[in-house]
Amino acid sequence: MIRSLIPGMRRLCRAALAPLAVALGLLAVGPASAQTAPALPEAAAASGSVAGVRSANIFEIAPGADADPNYASQTNAERRQVQPGNNAPMWRDVGKGVTGYSSLPALEAGNLIQPFVQYPGSRLTNAGEAWRQVRNNWIIPYGGSVLAIVLLALAMFYFGKGTIRLHGKETGRVIERFTYVERAAHWVNAIAFVLLAVSGIVMAFGKFFLLPIMGSTLFGWLAYALKNVHNFSGPLFAVSLVVVIATFVRDNLPTKGDLNWLLKGGGLLGGHEVPSHRFNAGEKVLFWGGVFLLGLVVVGSGLFLNHLAPVFDYTRGNMQVAHMVHATASLLMMAMFMGHIYMGTVGMQGAYSAMKTGYVDETWAKEHHELWYDDIKAGKIPAQRTPSHDGATATPVKA
Predict the structure, then answer these.
(1) Can you give the pTM of this predicted structure?
(2) How many Cα atoms within 13 Å fall on the side-chain side of residue 165?
(3) Helix and strand counts by DSSP (H, E) for the chain
(4) Which of 56, 111, 143, 302 is the most buried (most CB within 10 A)?
């Protein structure tokens, strides 16, 4: 039975391999096959095309495309005459950032690669690469260095000088330094700031000090979670910042003794502090430079990055500029607030309890804000601004 199948299998294999063999020139086409093959038109045979399709060997094109003196400025249609399928002119325009046509409704659907720009600190290159150079070569290394230098300076100051303590003995009589509304506005803004600062530091610098320890999977989940914390804390920080500015702007206006305080560094390195009003010149610099100026820049650029700022176009170029502004202002703001956090916690005795409870001892007020204390003694400012339960306000403290 097997022997009877062999001739049939041979005929089947010969029939299957015949077309391949003809194509490779292994078998000669006999007269019979030549007579049955359809004849090609003479014009088609001469031109090497069949049924209107032109064929060409890309290795034997003559003349070369670059032989034309206008080679570099050729359009796709011109280039196609000598090099079918060569669309180098189109990709050259794509690399230059030329806007093409797209039926998609997106703003930048016609731009695959952004146009060439030169940001401060970058080379003249396409906008995406220029942004990357600014971020990786300037913002990340120098911003991280600023934070590290400030942290080191605060540590040296603490271990060298220690906590600033009261020279006199506490009297037991207290003055209301912050009302409940002021403390609530401060703490909401402070908590939002800490969430933004921690999440921002991890997203910007985490790959350098966390990724090698945690691994890519765990770090990816952490960065993703903190990214969402950052996005949702931003609007809270924005609203609370406006409240803080409106609440404390009056007592942070410049006064006569502020320049003297700045020239003497507040007397921190000496034995006696320079007299000041409710907020000294250092706190006013923090308010106007850190809270007002940098705070509003951070909030404005952050809302834009979150697509919450109306009117503007959220193009790649605008988002890149907003990111550079946001990152730079945020790092400077964090550097300034590190000093504020230090003085409000371990740097000065009684500063943290003042914001926690709202009250300070008479001795604290006299030593750290003598002019403010004198106004309270003179009756110009009430010692307790929060009304009591019966609606009355406490009388000024007498020295």
Answers:
(1) 0.75
(2) 7
(3) 17, 4
(4) 302
Positions of the chain with pLDDT lower than 50, given as ranges: 1-2, 5, 20-41, 43-49, 392-399
Instruction: Please list the residues that pair with 125 across neighbouring strands.
Output: 117
| Predicted pLDDT at 75 | 76
Q: Give me the pLDDT at residue 37, please.
A: 43
Q: What is the DSSP string of 53-68?
A: B----GGG-SS-GGGS
| Separation between Cα atoms, residue 382 and residue 386, nearest integer Å | 9
Per-residue burial over 367-385, b if 16 or more Cβ lie within 10 Å, else e, is bbbbbbbbebbeeebebbe
Spatial CA neighbour of 369 closest among 354, 384, 347, 388: 354
CA distance 320 to 301: 10
Q: Give me the domains of the chain, ranges plus CATH numbers.
A: 130-377 (1.20.950.20)
How far is 281 from 252, CA to CA, in rounded Å? 8
Sign of CA dihedral 248, 249, 253, 259: positive
